[in-house]
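thoughts on both lines:
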Amino acid sequence: MTKKAVYADWIYYDGEIKQNKYLIINGNIIEGLADKPENDCEIIRRENSAIFPGLINTHAHLPMSIFRGLADDLMLMDWLKNHIWPVESKWLSESFVHDATLLAAVEMIRCGTVCANDMYFFSDHVASALEKCGLRGVVGVGVLDFPTKTGKGADDYIAKGSVLYQKYKDHELIDISLCPHAPYTVNPDNFRKCVEFCGKHDILLHTHLLEAPTERDDIIARYGKSPVELMNEVGAFDIKSIFAHTIHPTDEEIELMGTKGVCTSHCLESNMKLASGFSPVKRMLDAGMNVTIGTDGQASNNDIDMIGEMSTVAKFHKAFSQDATVLDAKTVLDMSTKNAAKALGLDKCGELKAGYKADFFVLSFDAVNMTPVYNPVSHLVYSANQRDVTDVYVNGKCLMDNGVITIVNENEIKEKARSWAAKIKG
């Protein structure tokens, strides 16, 4: 197999910027850096550019891409109960989920995202679409107390998750997770079943926690304890798990979750749009929690652009904390790469270093918004946008080459999405 040598002026390698080097790729593995490539290498040069580890989106609902812009400017529960759940009930199908995930996958590639932690329905078709696009995915099987098109109840959803786990357990790109939706849609007994299944198979449990301002009071009224207390009681903090949002924790809950090393996905732009509130990220990090970054779904964000999300997170928390040193560019990049890989249990991912998977993107500094360059990491977080991403590699395979997506037909995917939207509009 021919090695690849990818040159860039800057490479974010092992947590530091290295200049004027080649990143050496042997198959799907990073071999290291070199000043000059070996004679048998395929040489790829990207001048005035930087190579960064591929971004990892730790909370997404990828098939909601076709619901982008369908219902905006609404509070969370109104948006969910009166707009999103009804349209999902009417339109969700295997073909819809597959086509919508393809659209999301193209969006991921364009913004340098190499992996998404997804929670949705018809999960097999999410997985097959990501696989077709050459992307990594932690594909979640949704679990609810009540029946939907994809299951009769919690036991049935978990059984379907078991089948999907067996199908993908040795897959190179796809991992399976179990996703009890939230404490307000899954009762404690069914949460325990999910925790037991995930612990037995060492797979990720992925759920929403403290997502809405009313959630705490509702759950206390129903069960006599807070959502965080409930998650701790059912054992969700003691297995491989990640909790999306975590917007309204008390100081005591932050201390508990920090002691447990709880992983959370911070979805700031979605939380802002739905007026759900803000996670106290600085305090969570200081307490020992592993805070990562997610986008949530396109219907509530309304994109899954991780570069934009990083920029919003870094800037917002400086103002929120009234401290300009909070969440510097490197910290936010790490939240979106190596910290995310750790949270999702992705082995040898999230960093550029010898022996790790060859998942990376190339960022051009040619555009006016990227000129001049003093600090490439700062530029990625504070100046860049997805149009500055030129190349994306996952597992050593090129998915986008100099701005052209090579793995699938982007125009066909967009046209199919437009046809679905026309049906939905009626």
Remarks:
- The radius of gyration is 21 Å.
- The longest helix spans residues 94-110.
